Amino acid sequence: MKAGWFVRGDIDGFFGLFVDNLLQLMLIAVLCGNVCGMPPELVYGRILPGAALSILFGNLFYAWQARNLAIRTGRTDVTALPYGINTVSLIAFVFLIIAPIYFETKDPNLAWQAGLFACLASALLEIAGAFVGDWLRRHTPRAALLSSLAGIAITFISMGFVFQIFAMPAIAIVPALFVIFVYGGRIKLPLGLPGGFIAVVVGVAMGWILRWCGYPYFQPLQEPYQFALHFPKTAFPDMLAFLVNGHGWKYFSVIFPMALFNVIGSLQNLESAEAAGDRYDTRSSLLVNGFGSIVAACLGNPFPTTIYIGHPGWKAMGARWGYSILNGAVITVLCLIGGVTLVLKVVPMEAMIGILLWIGLIITAQAFQEVPRKHSVAVALGLMPALAAWALLLIETTLRKAGASLYDVAPKFGNDLYVYGIISLSQGFMLSCMILSAMMVFVVEREFFKAAVWTAVAAALSFFGVIHAYVLTPAGVQNRFGFGEAKAFALAYLIAALLLVALHYYNRGQESESTGIVA
Prior knowledge:
This protein is mainly alpha-helical and 519 residues long. Helix content is 71%, strand content 3%. The protein folds into two domains: 9-221 and 235-371, no CATH class; 374-502, no CATH class. The longest helix is centred in the first third of the chain and has 34 residues, at 40-73.
């Protein structure tokens, strides 16, 4: 098979992945500057160039990986794994590691060094996880791996962008609906034009036309842009400084679950890609995932890069592997010239987010479509911890904007919202999604002993505080690891596991009786 490097669908895939990556880079610029007090020369001169090189590294590898798979199998429909900075890790690193150190010391450089250390430690844990990834995939039901992705897709991706679209209907609804119509209906446009590109063009045109007519729905960024080249520099001494002073280890309670989150998320994305028709080697995919974050940390970017959610969406758009190369190249150029904000002076964000909404819808649909029909209840159960995590984010954001904190307000909720239940269910939510879903799959299949094993795992993780345990502080909800940190949950899961073991033996006895009668 002759495998070219680009197809027409790569243009659509590029726009979607580029917008997603651009959003993360914007968050970095805003949060590091406004929340963590970092000066522009640190954000635009060190962090973003480091992020660009790590994103380029991963994008090029996964493009090469996809092309090799296409050549080896003789297929022309292989789609590369998307790659970038994980939003959840980004938010966690900012608010649970970098910002607290800045608030305590008022030293943005020390806060940045803490982020670099966290990124490196997370990467090393991810590399270790690469050697058990295949075993986890073999022993975990597909519904369990896809349900948490669906939970993230319908909440953190889809609903957030739906709100933004309907908050700015004049320039956002038409492009979003156009994307949904074209891709949902598999409509071929005249001249083979890519639907995502046309949607963005329509949104940009509407934004500027309405602005020229006196309707300021689109407000370009006022920050002046000055062209400059920002080449990445080694940040290894900064990482070493934070490691030597001993402060880094007290944030391991944040670093460890985020590394575990990235490993589990990558496994789920690999399973999602396989469900869509592209099976990639687990170990090499996860190893490059970890090495990408090492590149990031060594070049000054404190935020881990990872295999992205969204493969089925890009595949449905017709993207193959060229979209990954385009994304890495354009993101790199933008970061090296300080041009992340330049795009937003011309293109309304609302014109682009319809593509991301479509990706969220596709991933949610896949979780139900690519599992046996009777496992759909397991997928539905697996959505709930992600819904709780999203609800907690909404509550905390609302209180923060109102000048209050969850620490002060939580006791006042009473039974109106059961906020402590929301917090408990949200802690370690990706693991909880997977465990609850796997448990339900084996119950549906009447394999009660396997369901008991998964429930016992939930008991152990609860006992050590990996899931459900937390401490509410003035800085927000924080992880709480140690012996007996969520004893009530551990006991409940243990009792449930014993009940499942009893069901296993009862069911086996019933089957023996049935066999004896037939005989």
